């Protein structure tokens, strides 16, 4: 444009036209993607009525067998609450994954499906990880505490008192309505509201605990 000596006005017009072209192309691509996604969801689904199709077990198995822990977590999420015989074998392999959180989640999936051995294994693993000196392990233990068969309230209270704020936040995410009867849990959840690193997780925990924390909240608000 400088060589042609068209000036600033030509630059503005050119950029405007280029922007319009990009908008048209982007809208077209978005529409085609939306149609393709809708067609794929109608054609086949990973999970329907809590039953995993055999054809999709192959795809989920590939994710569970990945060396990338993010792929493995995605595979665990896609399993939902349905575990087929094929995926149960894959979950057993995943339960030996080097990532502690992945191991816990795999065992919890098996335990939820009724695997008696997994119930014992996840309880033992969560107990070991909760006593670890590595905060990564303790966060993984907290992730397993949301499943009531894996721990007791003592382990939850200990993780709520952890020196690492990320561990405390993970423990707060594990608080369930069943913990409402434990005043030690409620006191720690209310105390977590006053700490910036755990305030957001504490709000969610309070909602799950319900009215049982109202006296503790009133006492906290009464303080200067």
Tell me what you see in this structure.
With about 220 residues, this protein is mostly helical. It is extended and about 75 Å long. Helix content is about 70%, strand content about 0%. A two-stranded antiparallel ribbon has the order 1-2. Mean pLDDT is about 75; it is low at about 45-55. Helix 7 runs parallel beside helix 9 and helix 9 (about 165-175) runs parallel beside helix 11 (about 200-210).
SS field, number of helical segments: 12
Q: How much is the average pLDDT?
A: 76
**Low-confidence parts, pLDDT < 50 over ≥5 residues?**
45-55
Secondary structure: number of strands: 2
What radius of gyration results from the CA coordinates?
25 Å
Oligomer: single chain
State which percent range the strand residues make up: under 5%
Largest sheet: 2 strands, antiparallel
Our measurement of the CA-to-CA distance between the termini, rounded to an integer number of angstroms, reads: 67 Å
The ordered string of helix (H) and strand (E) elements is HEEHHHHHHHHHHH
How much helical structure, as a percent, in the residues? 55-70%
By secondary-structure content and strand pairing, the structural class works out as mainly alpha
User: Strands across the major sheet, in which order?
Assistant: 1-2
Shape, please?
A: extended
